[in-house]
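User: Please fill in residues for this 253-position structure.
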């Protein structure tokens, strides 16, 4: 194992801690929903570890409660989680050419909104060491929260459950605030994203789309327009990576 791999492991574990804590808190509410659907703590832990998506699992447990057919669950999960295809495509541009397929599968399996945000902000080639060490503790936090929520049942008041759900949003905001402070363009795009997201929830027929589909449409549209209006030159990207590496070396000295 090289020194670079050790740094990736350390960074992955460090970045995963706040994500895991936020996931545990939010998954408590998910566990209460799972209990209503007749899911056992072990089943909840396993399903959350293998399927780390709040929207997909909430909807999935509701379908279980309604005894919906498997095909309905498959289609629903595919649509709600389709945004991860875009995230995978973005991260694939940073994977070294010689990376084995099994390592790429590990990286793809670990992608969530927050893991993607933490990974993309590193401005470094995507390492399987970082991806695994960042995703695994977060997955365990999410799964443990689901199982704990099932055990607690309806003991927690609704207000407490709703308050716990705010933690994930605060954590996600912390992902894009630093780059937005450094770049007026990114800050502007964030504001535009907020505005258009609100419009999509109010204007028909866009408001009738699922949240996952709205995210996909907005992501493709805003990212496409931004890439045309504000292209990043190769030399600028190389300079950004070099500066990031220099800062990293300085912090380890």
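Assistant: Residues filled in for all 253 positions:
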């Amino acid at each position: 194992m090289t020194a670079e791999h050790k740094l990736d492991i350390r960074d992955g574990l460090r970045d995963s801690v706040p994500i895991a804590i936020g996931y545990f808190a939010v998954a408590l509410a998910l566990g209460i929903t799972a209990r209503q659907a007749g899911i056992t703590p072990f089943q909840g832990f396993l399903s959350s570890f293998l399927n780390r998506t709040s929207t997909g699992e909430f909807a999935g447990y509701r379908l279980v409660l309604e005894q919906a057919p498997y095909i309905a669950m498959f289609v629903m999960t595919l649509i709600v989680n389709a945004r991860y295809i875009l995230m995978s495509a973005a991260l694939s541009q940073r994977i070294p050419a010689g990376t084995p397929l099994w390592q790429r599968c590990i990286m793809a399996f670990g992608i969530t909104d927050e893991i993607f945000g933490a990974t993309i902000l590193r401005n470094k080639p995507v390492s399987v060491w970082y991806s695994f060490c960042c995703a695994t503790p977060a997955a365990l936090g999410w799964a443990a929260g689901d199982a704990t929520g099932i055990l607690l049942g309806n003991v927690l008041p609704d207000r407490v459950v709703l308050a716990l759900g705010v933690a994930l949003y605060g954590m996600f905001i912390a992902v894009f605030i630093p780059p937005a402070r450094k770049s007026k363009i990114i800050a502007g795009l964030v504001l535009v994203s907020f505005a258009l997201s609100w419009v999509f929830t109010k204007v028909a027929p866009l408001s009738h789309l699922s949240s996952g589909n709205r995210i996909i449409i907005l992501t493709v549209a805003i990212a496409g327009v931004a890439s045309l209006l504000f292209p990043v030159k190769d030399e600028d990207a190389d300079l950004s990576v070099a500066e990031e590496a220099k800062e990293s070396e300085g912090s380890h000295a």
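For context: The chain has twelve helices and no strands.
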